[in-house]
Design brief:
213 residues; 8 helices
């Protein structure tokens, strides 16, 4: 496999395994990536679509061996519990930490419009998720803080709450603890398949509704 094909294959692998997009959406994304990188002469639409189908079939086959609750199911439960405890907890928030923080601020703004002020937030972003779907040495990092906060003591309280809820859901975590380091869940393996009729984990409106009830 050429370097360019390997680059596109990694993108296909990640998008299929993350389970946030339909197959049609992944196809559209991949064709766009091929075009943006000017790989059209080397990588055909047929190869891309065949690879997407193959990776999806592999994931379906593997899913039959998953043991419930999966790490993903336990994380969803933990994030729901954090929302119930007035902590904004967002799945797949942006591509980077900065983008994740932007998503949090948008949620916080809507909460405040409903006269709710959160006690803090946590999230993982797409780059974090790429590690969680990796075949070797998977894991997940969780960022935390409180909007408009400069106090390490306040941030630490948020981190402790997030760590506590994660532990209560069966996760072993690595964390200093420190206000300036993310919480790591070593060995975390993301196991999730896109379901058009299933819950949309990136529906942050659902997070807001949970917190204003």
């Amino acid at each position: 496999m050429t370097e360019n094909k390997a680059f596109i294959y990694e993108s296909i692998f990640n998008q299929v395994r993350m389970g946030f997009l339909s197959i049609d959406e992944i196809k559209e994304n991949i064709l766009e990536e091929i075009e943006d990188n000017e790989f059209e002469d080397e990588i055909s639409e047929e190869w891309a679509f065949d690879t997407i189908k193959e990776e999806y079939q592999k994931l379906l086959a593997e899913s039959k061996q998953w043991k419930s609750p999966t790490d993903t199911e336990r994380l969803i439960k933990a994030f729901d519990e954090l929302g119930d405890e007035n902590i904004v907890a967002l799945h797949n928030a942006g591509y980077t930490t900065t983008e994740g923080e932007y998503e949090v601020v948008e949620v916080e703004r809507e909460l405040q419009e409903n006269e709710v002020w959160s006690d803090g937030y946590c999230f993982y972003h797409q780059q974090d998720l790429a590690r969680a779907v990796a075949v070797e040495d998977p894991g997940l990092f969780i960022a935390f803080q409180k909007v408009d906060n400069t106090s390490d003591a306040v941030a630490m309280e948020v981190g402790k709450k997030v760590a506590e809820v994660l532990r209560n859901n069966g996760f072993q975590i690595k964390w200093s603890p420190s206000a300036r380091t993310k919480i790591e869940i070593p060995g975390f393996r993301w196991q999730h398949i896109f379901n058009e009729d299933g819950r949309d984990l990136q529906d942050y409106g659902e997070v807001i509704e949970r917190m204003i009830q």
